[in-house]
Amino acid sequence: MKSKKFLNKDLKKLFKDELKILVNEKSKIYDHKNWDSLGNFNILLSAEKKFKIKFNSQEFSKLNSFKEILKVVTTKIK
């Protein structure tokens, strides 16, 4: 199991690779031009693939900040 610190780093790298943006713990959807609803969907799909987890449809619609995404990814990996 990865620590939250490494998950944080891996998730930030996903944002950089997928959307070409740098995020921090306070970043939210629409803070960046590339992080719109489609960008958010792509981030969640990439997170599913990278961390071998699945988000349900409710999570796809409500996860819209870095902090929320990290929290859910962390709980699903344990």
Set out the fold topology.
Layout: H1 4-19, H2 37-51, H3 57-62, H4 66-77
Helix pairs in contact: 1-2, 1-4
Task: Considering the chains and any ligands shown, give keywords for the structure.
mainly alpha, globular, Non-ribosomal Peptide Synthetase Peptidyl Carrier Protein, Chain A, 63% helix, 78 residues
- From the alpha carbons, calculate the radius of gyration and give it in angstroms: 11 Å
Mean pLDDT: 95
Beta-strand content: under 5%
- CATH class placement: Mainly Alpha
- The number of distinct structural domains comes to 1
Q: What is the number of helices?
A: 4
Kindly report the name of the CATH homologous superfamily: ACP-like
How many strand segments? Answer: 0
Low-confidence stretches: none
Largest sheet: none
Which bin fits the share of residues in helices? 55-70%
Do you know the CATH architecture? Orthogonal Bundle
Which structural class matches the secondary elements?
mainly alpha
Distance between the termini: 7 Å
Assign an overall shape.
Answer: globular
Q: What's the CATH topology name?
A: Non-ribosomal Peptide Synthetase Peptidyl Carrier Protein, Chain A
Walk me through the structure.
The structure is a single chain. With 78 residues, this protein is mainly α. The chain has a single domain (4-77), classed as ACP-like (Non-ribosomal Peptide Synthetase Peptidyl Carrier Protein, Chain A), CATH 1.10.1200. It contains four helices and no strands. The mean pLDDT is 95.
